[in-house]
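for the recovery benchmark. tokens below, seq after
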């Protein structure tokens, strides 16, 4: 029997647990497809909010994928969730133009604070702006790139380098304001 247990917890951006932890049994080489709402018993009448789901594979490695869906247009994008780590990552693309958006979620999955730096670059490599950030233990935030780096000029494209001395988890999406398109942005670990 190669059954694995997926343990999951739901947290707010402040780090507080907002629902009891749950466990799902996943058969070996199997797939378990669930919505966050169904896993944690969140009623349709509860307003949507920003938070995070912490998952852990018990009994062996597991691959967990998040699917972002616009229910009005049907646009969808999938991202593989990676474990928290310290280091430097390349987010190879962002755009802050009329009609387009780039969202970035950063989570600190540990109990200790994490210091990090976000640096935006023009496609040719010139630094546009850089900001230091600190995330408290078990805290996460989801913002548009222009909210993470307020000094970005309007109508800007390029790439972002994220450096962290503490463990963080990253997730990013790009889309159109009309909701017709959404795409996941993968991260690459880099050496500086």
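predicted aa per position
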């Amino acid at each position: 029997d190669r059954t694995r247990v997926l343990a999951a917890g739901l947290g707010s951006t402040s780090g507080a647990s907002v629902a009891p932890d749950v466990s799902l049994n996943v058969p070996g080489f199997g797939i378990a497809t669930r919505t966050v709402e169904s896993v944690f018993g969140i009623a349709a009448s509860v307003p949507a909010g920003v938070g995070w789901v912490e998952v852990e594979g018990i009994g062996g490695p597991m691959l967990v994928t998040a699917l972002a869906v616009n229910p009005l247009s049907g646009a969808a994008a999938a991202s593989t969730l990676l474990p928290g780590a310290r280091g430097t990552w390349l987010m190879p693309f962002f755009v802050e133009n009329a009609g387009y958006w780039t969202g970035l979620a950063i989570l600190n999955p540990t109990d200790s604070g994490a210091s990090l730096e976000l640096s935006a670059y023009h496609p040719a490599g010139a630094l546009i702006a850089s900001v230091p950030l600190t995330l408290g233990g078990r805290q996460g935030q989801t913002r548009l790139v222009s909210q993470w780096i307020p000094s970005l000029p309007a109508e800007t494209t390029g790439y972002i380098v994220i450096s962290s001395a503490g463990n963080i988890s990253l997730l990013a999406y790009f889309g159109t304001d009309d909701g017709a398109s959404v795409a996941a942005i993968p991260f690459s670990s880099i050496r500086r």
